[in-house]
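Let us practice reading a record.
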Amino acid sequence: FFNTAMSQDLVALNSRVVTYLARHDGRDKLCRATAYGSEFLIYLLKCTGKESLMAWIKQIMKMKAGVGTARKCFRVGAPLKDVEALSKMKDQGYLKLFRILLHVGNAVYYSMDTVELMTIFDILPYKTAEVKVWRYRIFCFKTIFNLYLILKGISEAVQAIKRLQREVKEEGSEEARKKLADVYEAKRKLTVTLSMVIADLPIACFVVSDWGKRNIGPGGAGLCGLIGASIACREIWRGVKAPK
């Protein structure tokens, strides 16, 4: 049975899925897609106006709340990654300042996520909704620097691609071709990251502003979150290889 080509492919797929689920970020993004997908589904069910469909909303809301709480548990300790990134930072000048502000913003954002988790369990006396608003205000702050650094990285990659394309055309060396492929891949990853950040902006607007609540609504925020999480899941899956 295991000698057939199809069964070998299935075994390889299963191994790849196991490897994906073993990754912290893989589980986190799947939970994120489920939570925001649930929010969007609730919006769609409400739009139908049919009692038979709307009866499912209560169960979906429970699933959304449970998955959201699980995500916060996964991210306890996440600020330590930014502390490590700060310790290894090699940038100079204003880029160093921007990266410091980005990582500090990240660390505070994930710390607020843990505070929000403790309010859910009534460990802290704060209101969960108010903590969430402050968390997304921090998100807006750090996103300013994140967007600048991403766009700068893409711009530098475009310039490097043009230079390496000339080198490949003139010299045709294997080293130049490899460098060109590496820069193309770096640019692709930056573009994917940019798309995920842009998808998150309407969510922040919905959480922190009255305009967002009126014009984006939970359905729009849910759709944007689902799109961003799906892109992230696809990117993580792309980097997962089945163990040999």
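A brief commentary: The chain has a mean pLDDT of 91.
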